[in-house]
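From the shared-data thread, chain only:
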Amino acid sequence: MTAQRTPEPLHRRLGLTDDELDAIVARLGRAPNDLELAMFSVMWSEHCSYKSSRPLLRTLPIQGSDVLAGPGENAGIVRIGDGLAVAFKIESHNHPSAVEPYQGAATGVGGILRDIFTMGARPIAVLDALRFGDPADERTRHLVRGVVAGVGGYGNCVGVPTIGGELVFDPSYAENPLVNVMAIGIMPEDRITLASAPGPGNLAVLFGSTTGRDGIGGASVLASATFSDDDPSKRPSVQVGDPFAEKLLIEASLELVDRGLVAGLQDLGAAGITCAVSETADRAGTGIAVDLDAIPRREEGMLPFEVMISESQERMLAIVEPDRLAEVVEVCERWGAPATVIGCVTGDGDVAVVTGGLTVDGEPAPGAAVLARIPARALTSDAIVHERRAEPPARRRAAPAPGSAAEPDGDLPERGMDPGAVLLALVGGPNGASRRWVYEQYDRHVQTGTVADACGGAAVLRIRGTRRGLAATTDCAEGVSALDPYLGAAMSVAEATRNVAVTGARPLGVTNCLNYGDPTRPEAFWQLREGVRGLGDACRALGLPVTGGNVSLYNESPRGAIVPTPEIGVVGLLEDVEKRAAPAFRDAGDVIVLLGRPGPGLGGSRYAALAGADPEDGPPTLDLGREAAVQACIRAAIARGLVRSAQDVAAGGLATALAECAILGGIGARVEVAVEGAPAIELFGESPSRVVATCAPAALAGLLATAAEHGVPVERLGTVGGDRLVIALVGRGATGAAEERGARVADEVDLAVADLAHAWEHGLPRALGEDA
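Structure, as tokens:
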């Protein structure tokens, strides 16, 4: 006779540990019922509670003279002058996108847009930072097609341009792709609406779409556990989006805010109604009684826990004074976003779920039953916090990543080799080629505010009614993070802010999406801890506040964890959008200069991934003081009208930066690069704090003076012109006979710009099998 297996306790099936159950009992003073356990399970998930990362995040710099809202709100808000403010935030939808790529990505866009207009800002742009495994793998191709279609399908229909982002391939993302989405909005600075539920007696009004079983435990549960192979139970947890409903929700919400009809506003995302009511109540120090029977459903027979934790999309919760209810209902009905009173703000601090009706003061009606009663703060600000153990790995993995070249080619590209072939491989490779195949699936110009999309750097948006603009970008140095998570996070901040600076914009703040592995593993938590430390140190050194963001943990599969991926989003302010700089070479005869000095280190670079790197070769170093000086220098030079083009030196090194400038400008250049050490480092090393700039010959003296004023070394490289990119390598500081000075130390790069452009344009479709 076979013994029956003892059923696993409900709290474990919901993802709660035994210690967490004990903590729940302590907070309630009794054992929770099944509905209360379900509510705790989503609110104490990693996604909602930040139970592993909260102590680390408290160390980040969040203050700034222009910061109007920061971490803890739905989005960060920074004052930009003329009575205006910009709202921006980045979040992840990694795990849902791995299960169902189209809807996972689409609802990621919808969710981040709601974070923006919940604050009272009109969304004006989206950026998507995407990471996948080997592009030759069929599953990767399926995921890429689905995610890109999901981002475009939602953004295009909702009428918000997708203006930039990233697409990166690395073997570590094969089973766990990353879909990070950033949104930006503009608002009057006095129109900020907070996610708060003040005023006992005020009404809790749910408006927008109805509630269904789609997305039950979706983001909150999927983002709080690792994947198992072939687990079909994950699929029903992915939310389903409706961008046309979202567009109506935007207009209804902004009209409610503009007319001052709401006392608080919160979107419904992860953990659904449970999250919305508990967070708004906790922020105001109030409670909310929820009339379960009043919640509009799209499916019959939904259980109470399904209604309370459903993550059905395109829903909002407004806190409304009773005498404003009729106006609120009229606005919502006119925009096709039906509104229903589902509860009442109370003064007891509890979230109560009631069936059978409520009285006008939020008490259960005669004969009604209280299905759940939980202190709001127990679900939110007083959620459990774990003190995780952090230990560096006993042996750190040397670059390159698994699946890349295992052994270095120490000669490449020394004399006798062809550095031009290396350059073609980099600009035509899946990580270096044009992203046109992606961004042509996005509407980049809807709303007509896009001045420049991010095909060659940061995107630029015009601020309507002014001469000013916003520059925006996302960036991450995941290759360096794989070797040194502290340096990788700091480097990510430096690269993202430099991307903005080379347009002429002043960075306003940083939003981050920290993608890491299982925090219960000491090595993974050490990576997260070091990443947060690097993020904080870089932001302090550059004088930037962290305005908010997201932590995505458990990015692992049975095949291993992703490389640490601290995704950084930055928004900058341009005082005159017409004076912006772009990467493209402009006119024949323009002088090419390099601001900043190269340094050693090929570890974590694209060259190392292509050709291999010595195991002893570490990543480049970062001097944050030098970084700040280079950024200030290029901004000043652009503001003074000295610069014709500007491009930061990052992935692929100096040679790749020069190639991109030539490709985008459709014109060549002749350059001499002085070499002190290995030519590969000079050409393809990714040491930070460098900018390639061009100027008219008459402006060269002014540019050199500006560099000296900021203490930035500058080197004249060559001249724009012709239809070929020629990069000659010469010895730096050679001694001896005059005829030996400047002798070539390696074969030069000599490539037709047309050949570079062909490799760049066709590299990504070819890698994805889309070139037919």
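Residues 34 and 458 are 49 Å apart (CA to CA).
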